[in-house]
Design goal:
single chain; alpha+beta; six-stranded antiparallel beta sheet; elongated; disordered N terminus
Length: 364
């Protein structure tokens, strides 16, 4: 199928406009608004209820929200990459159309020139020539003209094929972007539902129960940290940090006290992977945005080899991440309603440890 100038240029403009609309940041990192009651149906917690059961339920809800947040972050990151690719293709389409127009103008000029000289091919004119010397001199020009014409036709064909390829690629990328937009919307809805359920559950607690619940949370974290330390994990731990590791730790700890905000990358609020990714950007090392991709793409190290600046990935689904700062502690953005804080590195189930940089520590 051949594509006319008007149609292709219009398509390129439409692609850029569509990208602009889909890439609009309006709701990307907004606070979750009111949403319908989640299907999970969080149980009410009237006075006298088992607060340990409430704590576990809240933990499950916020963990589900964290997993959905990382889904959203992954979709957001992919959308940005797709947007950039579509814009790049749109630019190629416009340039390709300009090139094709120029080639068509050259071909038209050649046709008009032939018409003005009687419409006879150069070869026929030479055969009919009465002057043998003119015939021989002109042979070279005929061959050059034939090669030029052949080259022009070849360029026209390639330019048309390139243009059609760019247009098809842009159409496919646009479909991917639309599918990703829907995935992002689904992830956002999941985040909002889980947070709404947790907030509803907490709102039904009396003041005294909320205070007791906060103590239960701290006690559970302390028990987990104690068990982790009692395992002897720190006995042979190399605590030396690299220069970039120190910069990452300095950045992350400087954010202590700022609120958790799902989908946020600073500077006023962060989610867990937003904090760790931005800390390493500040240290001069770009790393994946989400905790799952940090787990998949960064180099794994044994816990006994952990050093400040390394990232600790938590839970089997890699839905949470913190940064090790030394002495058995890590800094992290915990969950909605909490602020960035220091906590025991073993206060949650550890999936593993990853290292953003390969720089050696001093003395190694």
């Amino acid at each position: 199928m051949r594509t006319g100038k008007r149609g292709v240029t219009t398509a390129a403009v439409a692609v850029v406009c569509a990208v602009t609309v889909l890439a609009a940041p309006g709701t990307a990192f907004a606070d979750p608004g009111p949403s319908p009651s989640p299907s999970s149906g969080a149980p009410a917690a009237a006075p006298g209820k088992d607060l340990e059961a409430v704590r576990k339920k809240l933990d499950a809800l916020y963990r589900a929200a964290a997993a959905a947040t990382e889904e959203y972050n992954a979709a957001e990151e992919k959308a940005e990459q797709q947007n950039a690719r579509i814009v790049e293709l749109a630019k190629k389409i416009v340039k390709g159309q300009e090139k094709l127009d120029g080639l068509k103008d050259r071909a038209g000029a050649a046709a008009r020139s032939q018409y003005r000289t009687g419409g006879l091919p150069d070869g026929a004119k030479l055969v009919l020539s009465d002057d043998p010397e003119d015939f021989l001199d002109g042979t070279g020009r005929v061959l050059q003209g034939q090669r030029a014409t052949k080259g022009l036709l070849g360029e026209l064909t390639r330019a048309q094929e390139d243009l059609e390829t760019f247009a098809a690629d842009a159409s496919a990328r646009f479909k991917e972007l639309e599918a990703n937009r829907k995935a992002k919307a689904r992830a956002r809805k999941k985040v909002e539902q889980q947070i709404a359920a947790a907030e509803k559950l907490e709102s039904e607690l009396e003041k005294e129960e909320k205070e007791r619940l906060a103590r239960l949370e701290k006690e559970a974290q302390a028990r987990a940290q104690t068990a982790w330390l009692d395992s002897g994990i720190l006995e042979d731990l190399d605590a030396g940090a690299t220069e970039r590791g120190r910069k990452a730790v300095e950045y992350a700890t400087a954010q202590i006290g700022k609120p958790y905000q799902w989908g946020a990358e600073g500077p006023s609020s962060y989610d867990c992977s937003g904090l760790t990714s931005q800390a390493w950007v500040a240290a001069g090392q770009a790393i994946p945005r989400t905790s799952q991709q940090q787990w998949k793409q960064l180099r794994h190290v044994d816990i006994k080899d952990m050093r400040p600046g390394d990232l600790i990935i938590y839970f089997d689904d890699a839905s949470h991440v913190g940064m090790y700062v030394g002495d058995g502690s890590m800094v992290h953005a915990p969950r909605p309603g909490r602020s960035i804080t220091l906590a025991g590195a073993g206060s949650m189930p550890i999936l593993g440890v990853v290292r953003p940089d390969r720089e050696r520590t001093p003395g190694q």
